[in-house]
Design goal:
heterodimer, A: 423 residues, alpha+beta, Phosphorylase Kinase, domain 1, 6-stranded mixed beta sheet, 3-stranded antiparallel beta sheet, 13 helices, globular, B: 400 residues, mainly beta, Porin, two-stranded antiparallel sheet, 19 strands
Chain lengths: 423, 400
């Protein structure tokens, strides 16, 4: 098995030169695109948007290189699996040089003070904008840790993601912008922060997500194409990088993998004005559901899932699924994240999407090859960026990721006990 | 079929999703990176659903602070009720809460209340609140006194009362509340307005329905203690709530209807399999005793029957000076937000406190369906069967 894995890695390595992207066509005016989160859930739960394949007539992924790899594009960049990244590069992710300024005022330019946890958009002394998100009160470090860790993994796996940072800040540095924010007063700001867990030294831990550079034009859908983007020629439901995202999401338990957590941005960084496609908001990865710990059900059933519901109905709950019997971590920073009941072939996001539903074995093997390239030490290094104060919490997450990686490799990687591989 | 299913689930999911998907502040913030987009290509369904969520009615039903719809029956026999509630205060500082509501039912029941609460004084060590409630229920059921009353003996009467109550207490530990109350209760009863049932005076004499011929007002000081270590306010999955309250009802007019009331409510929640299954147990007792020469008027007696006590019996089926009942539920989750329950209820009313025992209990059995959201139970449908037949209850909160 190990031999085969090495062959796969060697194959991946020699195909690096084939990742050259197709020349980009400059885009004109891109019409901003909006979606309804509720509508997206309903249409994907009860409908079948996009072009679907059947068992008799499978539709292979399109735009794939002859060796099965995906070329570099505004969607995807071959990174760790093609040219192994160093530990430092993996920990750096999309960037680690732009955290919010350590000194000076953080000016709140918009805010959401209701709900379980508040959130702000701030502008720091450098003029950079960040989304500031807090952990659920009962689960310190849960969402912020998951958001940072998952962003590093998705970056190494080849996706465009924002720079995410764990930050600790003194609340006295927060100020409301000069012309005010409707509905936000100092009193309300204090009340909102009172609902968040304060560190012993009076500071707050939060996630700071740097605004993506460029002109945001809304999320992308997991089906169809953007009509006004001449570079968007392949139906999204047939893109290997979106079909394969299923397995990456399964590994990292990104149950909220949906259009609402994507963002298209018009950029000109390469000299050609084009639309770059981002994955954003990883607060619902690992054992986190952003505002609380995940239910252990998540990842095993869709939010609306008739078959398991009927099983529970007719058995009066006497049938206990494996996920309900699996041991979970006691640490509040971990949430419901485990490898024992994890089944990569049957993992489920909160609701289906067309690209995931169209996945074929070749798409999954492609993704499994990428996942197999992460060694135990590399996984441990990336998890350390979550800055978990409890070593047992970090250790649980590392062991779970390793366990899930091994299951994926056994299922799709043709092979390899990844746990035996060392850097 | 699929479209029908979507149609049926649509309004519910619109409300449900506000809590579970879209109102997540972090998600909203994340999406606020983008400007106000226009819409290009998406299924018609998508556009429709997007519009649905923006409907003022959906927003109004979903609640929050400010004005919102107040749905739900003020009494199990009232018929469908609707009204308006106004909430303010807690959202801004967490120190002061003001709430007032008024609703009317198809059975012409009226219910209005107002509350000012200070839940977090002195670093949450002290709490206080003042409430005022006015009720005008024109068709409350009365079946006669005690456990031996017959279902055929159903009558109705009007209960009109106004209660003002002040409460203050301390929270020495996070899970413990100790407090005292002072209330004044003004009561009027009269003939019921139902055309289906006799008014109470046509069937029962004041000797059977004590206090039927003359009502009184009460001053009612009391004390209470509560231990609550449940994990979730709206729909607990583990922990327990133990509550006791002693109230001295002092007749302000006749000197004939004073009594002391002791309420005890014990609830325990035993989770299994990561809280996917829960055994919910409850024991409740209301016990009274009177000074020599006094009686407990029928409209102040504890009752059994209805969706919160004995689900196979109609509401207010049994009146007595004392009551006790037990509920046991096995709850299991079918899916996210959907839960089933099997339950059994047992209870009785009895005239004298010395008769506290398990003899003569009435039993009922049943099953229920619950739709839950993050804060608790959105809807509960319970069906219970017992000696007198079956009852089905639709409620908008958890039983206990």
């Amino acid at each position: 098995m190990a031999t085969l894995s090495r062959k796969l890695l060697a194959l991946a390595a020699c195909t690096t030169s084939l990742f050259a992207s197709e020349a980009l066509v400059p885009v004109g005016k891109i019409q901003p695109q909006k979606m309804s989160e509720f509508g997206d859930m309903m249409s994907n739960t009860f409908g079948s948007p996009g072009e679907r394949q059947t068992a008799k007539e499978p539709i292979p992924s399109r735009g794939v290189l002859p060796n099965g790899e995906v070329p570099d594009s505004p969607w995807y960049v071959n990174r760790h699996a093609s040219t192994p990244m160093s530990i430092d590069e993996l920990k750096r992710g999309p960037g680690d040089t732009n955290p919010p300024a350590a000194t000076g005022t953080w000016t709140i330019v918009s805010a959401k003070t209701e709900g379980v946890t508040p959130g702000f958009v701030i502008e720091d002394a450098k003029g950079d904008k960040y989304v500031i998100k807090f952990d659920p009160p009962r689960h310190p470090e849960l969402a912020s840790g998951a958001d940072v860790v998952a962003s590093k993994f998705f970056h190494a796996l080849g996706y465009h993601v924002p720079e995410n940072y764990v930050v600790h800040f003194d609340p006295s540095r927060l100020a409301i912008k000069k012309d005010g924010i409707k509905g936000l007063t100092k009193k309300k700001l204090k009340a909102a922060l009172d609902r968040v867990r304060k560190e012993k030294d009076g500071s707050y831990r939060a996630l700071a997500s740097l605004y993506v550079k460029g002109e945001p034009v809304g999320p992308f859908f997991f089906h169809g194409v953007r009509a006004d983007d001449p570079n968007d020629k392949i139906l999204h439901e047939h893109r290997r990088e979106l079909r394969g995202l299923y397995l990456f999401s399964a590994w990292l338990n990104h149950t909220d993998s949906k259009s609402g957590n994507t963002l298209d941005v018009v950029v000109e960084g390469t000299g050609v004005r084009h639309v770059r496609h981002y994955l954003i908001d990883f607060g619902a990865t690992l054992g986190s559901a952003t505002h609380e710990a995940k239910s252990p059900r998540q990842g095993h059933e869709n939010l609306i899932d008739m078959k398991p519901a009927l099983v529970q109905f007719f058995t009066l709950g006497l049938h206990v699924p494996k996920w309900a019997r699996t041991e979970l971590s006691d640490s509040p920073a971990v949430g419901a994240f485990e490898a024992e009941a994890f089944d990569p072939a049957h993992w489920k996001p909160n609701y289906p999407n067309p690209a995931f539903e169209n996945r074929l074995p070749d798409d999954l093997k492609w993704a499994a090859r990428k996942i197999a390239t992460f060694t135990d030490d590399q996984i441990r290094a990336i998890v350390s960026t979550g800055q978990y104060s409890d070593p047992a919490a970090a250790d649980w997450i590392v062991r779970t990721l390793i366990g899930r990686r091994d299951k994926i490799v056994r299922a799709y990687g043709d092979a390899v006990q990844a746990s035996t591989r060392k850097e | 079929m699929r479209k029908l299913l979507v149609g049926l689930l649509w309004p519910l999911a619109a409300v449900y999703s506000q809590d579970n998907l879209s109102l997540n502040p972090v998600t909203v913030l994340e999406k606020s990176r983008a400007p106000e987009f226009t819409y290009d290509e998406a299924p018609t369904l998508d556009r429709g659903l997007r519009q649905t969520r923006k409907l003022p009615l959906v927003s109004f039903l979903n609640g929050g602070y400010g004005f919102r719809a107040k749905l739900g029956r003020p009494a199990p026999t009232s018929g469908f009720a609707a009204g308006v509630e106004y909430n303010a205060g807690n959202y801004t500082t967490g120190q002061v809460l003001f709430r007032t509501s008024a609703r009317a039912s198809t059975g012409r029941y009226l219910h209005a209340d107002a509350e000012v609460a200070f839940p977090r004084l002195a670093g949450e060590k002290i709490f206080a609140n003042v409430t005022a409630v006015h009720r005008n229920f024109p068709q409350l059921r009365y079946y006669g006194p005690g456990a031996g009353s017959r279902a055929e003996g159903i009558t109705n009467f009007r209960l009109e009362d106004t209660r003002a109550e002040a409460t203050a207490g301390v929270r020495p530990l996070r899970i413990v509340r100790l407090g005292a109350t002072a209330s004044y209760l003004k009561i009027n009863t009269g003939p019921g307005t139902s055309s289906r049932y006799f008014s109470i005076k046509r069937i029962y004499a004041p000797q059977q329905a004590t206090g039927l011929d003359r009502q009184t007002d009460y001053a009612a000081p009391g004390v209470f203690a509560e231990i609550d270590y449940t994990d979730h306010v709206g729909s607990p999955r583990s922990g327990g709530i133990y509550y006791a309250r002693l109230t001295n009802y002092v007749d302000q007019q006749h000197g004939a209807y004073s009594f002391r009331g002791l309420d005890i409510d014990l609830r325990q929640f035993l989770p299994l399999f990561h809280e996917q299954r829960v055994f919910a147990l409850r024991a409740h007792g209301t016990f009274t005793d009177t000074p020599r020469g006094n009686l407990v008027p029928f409209y102040m007696q504890p009752t059994l029957g209805g969706p919160e006590t004995m689900r196979a019996y109609p509401a207010f089926r049994f009146y007595g000076n004392n009551s006790m009942y037990f509920n046991a539920e096995y709850r299991w989750k079918l899916s996210t937000g959907i839960e089933m329950a099997l339950f059994t209820d047992a209870g009785k009313v009895f005239p004298n406190r010395r008769q506290i025992d398990l003899r003569g209990l009435q039993f009922c059995y049943g099953a229920g369906l619950r739709l839950n959201y993050r804060q608790g139970t959105f809807m509960r449908l319970d069906g219970g069967c017992g000696r007198e037949g079956c009852q089905v209850w639709l409620r908008f909160h958890e039983n206990y």
